[in-house]
Amino acid sequence: MTPTLPYLGGAGESRSLLAGMTFLEVTESGRIDLAGLSTWLDEHVVATGCMTRPSVVLEPPAGTVPLRPGTGAVARSNADLPRIISTARLRVVDALRGLIASPSDDRFLRAAIFLGRVRRQDGRWVARPEATAPLSGIVLSLFAVPVLSERTFFDRQLCVCDNCGRVSFDAAPGRRHTCPEHGVRVSGVSQRALPASSPPESSVMPIQPASRRSPTEPPRKTGMTPR
Ligand SMILES: [Zn+2]
């Protein structure tokens, strides 16, 4: 269940990143229930001292559910939860995607600082979301800690897949908007497009012979075999 994460300088930064990434992992299927969300909160937010256990989970305008509903309200709360989770998840992924957009959009960092959800403590950034913070605000405050501390790393390695929204890390160039699953397909497309979109030699040559030789087939260059 623990995502493979890069090593970051400080334990606090690594713990915050792990907390945020774990949220994305456990909510990916969309089938996490209230007990599962409670466990994530307890392990990654409450036990690490970021905030005291909230009594409700909210994500306006998707809704609010009590974390420990009375026996009669459990089913109702679990029914309301998916919309809250998916709204929060989408906001988190969109905010992270902003970091790798051009021009980059890091408003979530400034918002987190402005709202006091991240702050400096003993020379380090720490997440301190308020008890009434929306779920997305809690998760983004967790991500804000490592991003504020190691921005260059995120600029170089953060990947948010355009296809599926998966957040991952990859140092290889050209991977910022893909994921391990969809990266292959995307690079395959660009490789197939390569011979057609690289006619510098034939454009130098007269057009007549080339079109007489093969009017229907694309020109094959023996020296150029795409991987
Ligand atoms: Zn993907």
Estimated share of beta-strand residues = 5-15%
Q: What is the arithmetic mean of pLDDT?
A: 83
Unreliable stretches: 185-227
Q: What is the gyration radius calculated from CA atoms?
A: 23 Å
Largest beta-sheet details:
2 strands, antiparallel
Ligand set? zinc ion
Summary tags:
two-stranded antiparallel ribbon, binds zinc ion, mainly alpha, 2 domains, 6 strands, two-stranded antiparallel sheet, disordered C terminus, 227 residues
Structural summary, described in words:
The chain is 51% helix and 10% strand. It is mainly alpha-helical and 227 residues long. The protein has two domains: 11-160, no CATH class; 181-227, no CATH class. It has a two-stranded antiparallel sheet. Strands 3-4 form a two-stranded antiparallel ribbon. Strand 5 (158-160) and strand 6 form a beta hairpin. The radius of gyration is 23 Å and the shape is globular. The relative contact order is 0.11. Residues 185-227 have low confidence and may be disordered. Zinc ion (ZN) binds next to helix 7.
